[in-house]
Design brief:
CATH topology of the largest domain: Spore Coat Polysaccharide Biosynthesis Protein SpsA, Chain A
Helix content: 40-55%
Strand order of the largest sheet: 3-2-1-4-7-6-8
CATH architecture of the largest domain: Alpha-Beta Complex
Number of domains: 2
CATH class of the largest domain: Alpha Beta
Largest sheet: 7 strands, mixed
CATH superfamily of the largest domain: Spore Coat Polysaccharide Biosynthesis Protein SpsA, Chain A
Distance between the termini: 31 Å
């Protein structure tokens, strides 16, 4: 029997909004895949109200032309979901990319076998010809896994402003993830809608995608992680576009827009000492089974959740230390971690550049840092040569790849 016949069938979930220039490219990437067992579901979407908004008329017409172009593709391979033409758009209460992903994935689940895979993509993302095959093989070899957060690498932009912004944003993301890996957090994932996959059975088990106007990929991965094991390593990666975009309220596009205007307050380089504080509390979780000890994390959760002892209810509900510790991690989850970092970052004064340099010096070989040839004494995200930012991006990418690969061996 052909190997591919034994691998899971893949259902591609692809939301689209005003992206004709990228859509043709991603369809070409799909068509060149060496793995042939797949079907693509494309949801062209927009709010219904845009049809009555003169500022949005061009987008409405573009989406209509996109629908027309898609319907000319092979219907056996490409299934088109129209949430853009007149009387088919979103109402202003339920709209956005989160709803688009949910609508697509829910339709897939109604048609797919439990062992099939859902692979989430974005229109502005490219990938090599073996990407689908790599995902199918990954889940075939890890049949207990509930999800995949695939590796990524943003494409180099010819626009210097966009290039600087995406380098700054990607350094933020990789610094964040590497610190979570360093403290062995269960929530060590980067949430990119273009780099997520899961089995159909796992999608059903966690209650599906929770629709959000932004951040739906983060909340979905968090739900999956609380249910089971997520894969971080994959032989192939995705290559998202570096572009200024306001299609969502937060994420890559909005971060680049704000950052280009000089505002990175929503995406700071958090002091690595804060991650150490989280780590210290992690280490105490087993002892909390008998009595909660006071730490800055515990104090934060107590105030945030309005609970005198946020771990006391868990002691009543979980009768073994192992289950209790797991419940502790589920309570202090990825969202709470981010909230803790945001609330406490002023405890360690310094610029983003200073926090990044302290992290690099504390965790990596000094000769390797010297070999980068960067004058860290004058390093600036705004003024340093793009090549210096690229060197840091590549260093963090390599370190992250090492951690991803090690996770596959454990």
């Amino acid at each position: 029997m052909d190997l591919q016949e034994s691998l899971p069938f893949i259902h591609i979930a692809l939301p689209v909004l005003n992206e004709p220039q990228f859509l043709r490219r991603v369809v070409d990437c799909i068509s060149r895949q060496t793995y042939g067992r797949y079907k693509v579901y494309i949801c062209v979407n927009q709010p219904e109200a845009w049809w009555n908004d003169s500022d949005k008329s061009e987008i409405c017409l573009t989406n209509e032309m996109t629908l027309e172009w898609l319907r000319a593709l092979d219907p056996g391979t490409f299934s088109v979901i129209d949430r853009a033409s007149r009387n088919h758009g979103w109402n202003m209460k339920n709209f956005g990319i989160g709803w688009a992903r949910k609508v697509i994935m829910d339709r897939i689940v109604n048609q797919a076998d439990p062992s099939d895979l859902i692979l989430s993509l974005d229109a502005d993302t490219t990938f090599n010809e073996n990407y689908f095959l790599s995902v199918a093989l990954n889940f075939y070899n890890n049949q207990d896994a509930v999800g995949l957060a695939a590796p990524y690498f943003h494409l180099i932009s010819e626009d210097p402003r966009a290039y600087r912004a995406i380098l700054r944003y990607e350094i933020y993301m990789r610094h964040y993830q590497l610190n979570l890996w360093r403290i062995a957090s269960p929530y060590t994932f980067t949430a990119l809608g273009s780099a997520i996959a899961c089995p159909v059975w796992a999608y059903k088990a966690v209650g599906g995608m929770t629709p959000k106007t932004s951040g739906e990929d983060f909340y979905f991965l968090q739900k999956l992680r609380k249910y089971g094991r997520i894969l971080f390593w994959n032989d192939e990666k995705v290559f998202p576009e570096a572009r200024f975009s306001d299609r969502v309220f937060f994420g890559t596009g909005p971060a680049m827009i704000k950052g280009d205007a000089g505002d990175w307050t929503s995406y700071p380089i958090y002091p690595f000492e804060l991650f150490d504080e989280i780590w210290e509390t992690y280490e105490l979780f087993p002892s909390f089974f008998k009595k909660t000890q006071s730490t800055d994390v515990v104090k934060f959760l107590s105030v945030l959740l309005k609970e005198k002892d946020p771990f006391a209810p868990l002691r009543k509900n979980f009768k073994t230390t192992e289950n209790f510790v797991r419940a502790c991690h589920e309570k202090f989850d990825g969202l709470r971690i981010l909230q803790y970092l945001k609330a406490n970052q002023k405890k360690y004064p310094g610029t983003d550049e200073e926090h990044l340099l302290k992290f690099l010096k504390a965790n990596y070989d000094q000769s390797q840092l010297r070999n980068l040839g960067i004058d860290f004494g004058s390093f600036s995200f705004e003024r340093s040569p793009l090549n210096d930012l690229e060197k840091i991006r590549l260093l963090l990418f390599e370190k992250e790849e090492e951690s991803r690969f090690i996770s596959a061996l454990c």
